[in-house]
Design brief:
This protein is of the alpha/beta class. It folds into five domains: about 10-130, Four Helix Bundle (Hemerythrin (Met), subunit A) (Up-down Bundle); about 180-285; about 295-470, Heat Shock Protein 90 (2-Layer Sandwich), CATH 3.30.565.10; about 475-610, Beta Barrel (OB fold (Dihydrolipoamide Acetyltransferase, E2P)), CATH 2.40.50.180; about 630-750, Rossmann fold (3-Layer(aba) Sandwich), CATH 3.40.50.2300. Strand 12 and strand 13 (about 520-525) form a beta hairpin.
C-alpha cells in the first residue's frame, strides 16, 4: 500500500486513490484472463484487488461499492477453486463492475451522492453476475457481439478517470503530496533561471584571468625598468622603492590567484548544483509512458469485440519517460489512431484467413527515445491504406482535378488524410466515419513542435510515426541575430543552416534564389518577415536558415549565427494573444530575453508573401515606398481558388492584397498589419465570417474599418444577419462575373495607386 500524508488527504481521497490503482489492476488482470482463464496468478490478483476494495469501501462507508466488490470477490474465489471457468459473459460483467466501482469512487461526499440509487444499481449488478451462465469447459473463440450478456442498467455509467494524485510506484517510506501543475511549472522556471544565473560567473572568471595576466605583465615591466635604468641612478632609496613595488605586486598576484581558485571552485560547485536542481525539477514533470496508456487496452478490447475482430494489443516502452504535458496531449491522438486502426485498418477474421493471414491481428504502440526526441509508433498488420481509394475520394470531393490527382505522389496522397473532414468511409458509425481524427492528431503534433509520418503497404499494414520533443520545457535551438535582437529557431524544425557567398545569389523572374543540392530555393530576408530594419550595406556572405521541405522550402537570411543552445522555454503572457511568427521566449546566458520562432507560422507567412508576389530583394529596406501608397485589402476565404481569384482581381486594379485561410488567420493578420478593407467569406473553419466581423466591430482600433462579406449564400436572412453584425456590404460570389465587387471596393475605400 502506498504511503501518504494523512494531513493532506481525506478518507475519500484515499479511497479514490486506492480505487484507481485497484481497478486498473482488475482491468489488466481481466483482460489477461479473457485470453487464458486458467492463469492462477491473475485470478489471485483479481481476488486481492476486489478484497482490498471491499475493505476500503467499508471503512469510508461507501456501501454500494462493498456490494459490488463482494460479488466480484465471490466469483474470483469460485474460479480459484475450480468451481467455474470465467467465460466471456462473466468477463464483460466483471469489467462493468470495474466501471461501477470507478464511478462510485469518483463520487464526492455530500448531497450529490444518493446512496439508495447507487445501492440499487450495485444489487442489480450482483444479481446479473450471479445469473451469468457458468462455463465448466473451455469455450471457443469469444462471440462477436455481447448482446447475450445480461444487461447492465443504463444508469451505471463509468465516471471520468480521477486525476492521478500519486505516482505509479513509490519506494518504501516515500510520501506522496498533491502539488499543482502551476507550482511545478514555477519550480522548473526558477530552476532554469538559477542555471542561467550560474553562467554569469564565467565572464567574471575570465575577467579575473585577464587581470592575472596583467599582473604578470606589470611585474615584467618593473623588471625591465630596473634593467634599463643606469646603475648610478639606482641608489639605495630607488632600489628599495622598486623592491616595495615588487612585493606589493606579488601580494596582489597571490591574493588574486587565491580568489580566482576559490571562484573557480565555487563556480564549479554552483553550476553542478544548478544542473542537478534543474534536472531534478525536470524529472518531476516526467512520467512513464504507461501512465498515459492505462485506458487503451480496455478500449481496444471493447471496440474489437463490437466490430467482431480478433486483435492482440501490445504496448512497448512502458517505462519510457515522457513530459507530463505531452503525455496528457497524447490521449486524444492515440485514441483516434487506435480507433482508426481497428475500424479502417484491421480486417475481419474471415478476410484475414482469405488473405493468408492469422485470424488474430495485432496493434502495437511503442515509445522510445531516439536522437534526443520522443518517438511513438502506432502500427498494425491490417489491410493498409489503399492509395487508389484516396485518389477516388479526392476527386469525388472536388479537392483536385482528376489529372492533378493522378500525378500526386504517395506522400502527397497520404497528406490528404490529415485534412479536416476527410474520410474514405461512406457510412458514419459511433467509432469513425465523420472525417475527424487524423486532423486532430496532426494539430496536436504541431502544437508541441513535433511531426508525424505515415508508412503503409497495401495488404500488409500501416505505421504512424510520431516524433515529439522530450519535453516542452527545454528546446535545443539555433540562435541567430536579426535586426540587433537574438532569435531562436528550434533545431527540430529547420532543414539546415549555412553561409552562402553573395555572388551565388541568382535572380529568376524577379525573385532571388540560391541552389541547394541542385534545386532553386527562394531567398527571403528575415527583416521583411519580422518587420525589422535591415543592416546597412551589402554583406559578402549571407547567413541562411533553411525552413520547410521540397517545393515549399525557403532560405531565410539572418544577420548572423550565434550558435546552438538548450533553452528553457518561457511561455508568453496569454494577454498578448498569438504573436505572429513567435511561439515562446527564453533567456540568453547573460540573462537577456530572446524570442523563440514559431517555424510553422513563419512558413505560412513566407508562403503568403510568395503567393502575393511581395518578396522583396534581400538588402533592400522593407517598408520604404515611393509615390502614392497602395491601399491594402485583406481577403479571408478558406477556398484557395476563391482567394486567388479575388487577389488577382484586386491586384489588377492596383490594390495591395494579403490573404488569410480562415477567420482566425484573418483576425491574427488584422492585429499585426494595417489594412484599409476586409473582404470575408462566411462559412470557414476555426472562426466564421460573422464572428470575425463581430470581433472587428468590438475592437477599438479596428471598429471603423470597412468590411465586406462575399458569400455563396444569397438568402435574405443570411444577408440580414451579415449586415446586422456590422458588415458594410454583402455580396454574393456571383459578383465576380461583373464589376460589382470592384465598384463596392471603390465605394468603400476609393481607388488605389497603380
Amino acid at each position: 500500500m502506498k504511503h501518504v500524508d494523512p494531513s493532506s488527504l481525506s478518507l475519500r481521497d484515499l479511497f479514490r486513490i486506492e480505487a484507481e490503482e485497484q481497478t486498473k489492476a482488475l482491468t489488466d488482470a481481466l483482460l489477461a484472463l479473457e485470453k487464458d482463464p486458467a492463469q492462477g496468478d491473475m485470478l489471485e490478483c483479481c481476488m486481492r484487488a476486489a478484497h482490498s476494495l471491499k475493505g476500503a469501501a467499508r471503512i469510508v462507508g461507501v456501501h454500494p461499492a462493498v456490494t459490488v466488490a463482494h460479488a466480484m470477490e465471490d466469483i474470483f474465489v469460485l474460479a480459484q477453486g475450480g468451481q467455474l471457468r470465467l467465460a466471456p459473459a462473466q468477463i464483460d460483467l466483471l469489467l462493468s463492475g470495474v466501471d461501477l466501482l470507478s464511478a462510485l469512487a469518483g463520487q464526492g461526499e455530500g448531497e450529490n451522492f444518493d446512496e439508495d440509487i447507487w445501492q440499487a444499481d450495485a444489487e442489480r449488478f450482483a444479481a446479473a453476475l450471479t445469473a451469468a451462465p457458468v462455463a465448466s469447459e473451455p469455450e471457443p473463440a469469444p462471440p462477436v457481439m455481447v448482446a447475450a450478456v445480461p444487461e447492465i442498467p443504463s444508469e451505471i455509467q463509468p465516471a471520468p478517470a480521477p486525476e492521478r494524485l500519486l505516482p505509479e510506484k513509490l519506494g518504501e517510506g516515500d510520501r506522496a503530496l498533491r502539488v499543482s501543475a502551476e507550482n511545478l511549472n514555477r519550480l522548473l522556471d526558477m530552476a532554469g533561471e538559477s542555471l542561467v544565473e550560474t553562467r554569469r560567473l564565467a565572464p567574471l572568471e575570465q575577467s579575473l584571468l585577464r587581470l592575472k595576466r596583467m599582473h604578470h605583465q606589470a611585474a615584467a615591466a618593473i623588471d625591465a625598468l630596473q634593467a634599463a635604468l643606469p646603475a648610478d641612478l639606482l641608489d639605495e632609496r630607488a632600489t628599495s622603492a622598486l623592491e616595495e613595488a615588487r612585493r606589493r605586486l606579488f601580494d596582489c598576484r597571490r591574493q588574486l590567484a587565491g580568489g580566482l581558485d576559490e571562484l573557480e571552485a565555487s563556480n564549479h560547485r554552483t553550476t553542478n548544483l544548478a544542473h542537478r536542481l534543474y534536472n531534478q525539477a525536470l524529472m518531476v514533470r516526467m512520467r512513464p509512458f504507461a501512465d498515459g496508456m492505462a485506458a487503451f487496452p480496455r478500449m481496444v478490447r471493447d471496440i474489437a469485440r463490437e466490430l467482431g475482430k480478433q486483435v492482440r494489443f501490445e504496448i512497448l516502452g512502458e517505462r519510457t519517460q515522457v513530459d507530463r504535458d505531452i503525455l496528457e496531449k497524447l490521449d486524444a491522438p492515440l485514441g483516434h489512431l487506435l480507433r482508426n486502426a481497428l475500424d479502417h485498418g484491421m480486417e475481419s477474421p474471415e478476410e484475414r484467413r482469405a488473405a493468408g493471414k492469422p485470424a488474430e491481428g495485432f496493434i502495437r504502440v511503442e515509445a522510445s527515445h531516439q536522437a534526443g526526441a520522443l518517438q511513438i509508433i502506432v502500427s498494425d498488420d491490417g489491410r493498409g491504406i489503399d492509395l487508389s481509394a484516396i485518389r477516388r475520394t479526392i476527386i469525388a470531393r472536388g479537392l483536385a482535378a482528376p489529372d492533378t490527382a493522378a500525378r500526386l505522389s504517395e506522400a502527397e496522397l497520404l497528406e490528404f488524410l490529415f485534412l479536416p473532414g476527410f474520410t474514405m468511409k461512406s457510412d458514419v458509425t459511433e467509432i469513425s466515419g465523420r472525417g475527424v481524427g487524423l486532423d486532430i492528431v496532426q494539430d496536436m503534433i504541431r502544437q508541441v513542435r513535433g511531426r508525424v509520418r505515415i508508412i503503409s503497404r497495401h495488404g500488409e499494414g500501416t505505421r504512424f510515426r510520431l516524433e515529439l520533443p522530450l519535453t516542452l520545457s527545454v528546446v535545443r535551438a539555433l540562435l541567430v541575430d536579426i535586426g540587433g535582437e537574438p532569435y531562436a529557431f528550434p533545431f527540430a524544425h529547420i532543414a539546415g543552416a549555412m553561409k552562402v557567398p553573395a555572388d551565388q545569389v541568382r535572380t529568376v523572374e524577379g525573385r532571388q534564389h540560391i541552389l541547394i543540392e541542385g534545386n532553386a530555393v527562394g531567398l527571403v530576408g528575415a527583416h521583411q518577415v519580422l518587420g525589422c530594419v535591415p543592416p546597412e550595406g551589402a554583406p559578402e556572405e549571407l547567413c541562411v536558415v533553411l525552413l520547410g521541405a521540397g517545393d515549399h522550402m525557403f532560405a531565410l537570411v539572418v544577420d548572423g549565427f550565434t550558435g546552438g543552445r538548450e533553452l528553457v522555454v518561457q511561455p508568453l503572457d496569454p494577454r498578448l494573444g498569438k504573436i505572429k511568427d513567435i511561439s515562446a521566449a527564453s533567456l540568453t546566458e547573460d540573462g537577456a530575453p530572446l524570442l523563440i520562432v514559431d517555424v510553422e507560422d513563419m512558413l505560412r507567412s513566407l508562403e503568403k508573401l510568395a503567393a502575393t508576389d511581395r518578396l522583396a530583394p534581400v538588402g533592400r529596406e522593407i517598408g520604404v515606398e515611393t509615390g502614392a501608397r497602395r491601399k491594402r485589402v485583406l481577403v479571408v476565404d478558406d477556398s484557395f481558388t476563391v482567394r486567388e481569384l479575388q487577389r488577382k482581381l484586386l491586384d489588377h486594379h492596383g490594390y495591395d492584397v494579403e490573404v488569410a485561410v480562415d477567420g482566425m488567420d484573418g483576425w491574427n493578420a488584422l492585429r499585426h498589419g494595417g489594412f484599409d478593407l476586409v473582404v470575408s467569406d462566411i462559412d470557414m473553419p476555426r472562426m466564421d465570417g460573422i464572428e470575425l466581423v463581430r470581433r472587428i466591430r468590438h475592437d477599438p482600433a479596428l471598429k471603423a474599418m470597412p468590411v465586406m462579406i462575399l458569400s455563396y449564400k444569397d438568402r435574405e436572412e443570411d444577408r440580414r444577419r451579415g449586415l446586422e453584425v456590422g458588415a458594410d456590404y454583402y455580396l454574393t460570389k456571383g459578383s465576380f462575373q461583373n464589376d460589382a465587387l470592384i465598384d463596392a471596393v471603390i465605394d468603400l475605400i476609393g481607388e488605389s495607386a497603380a
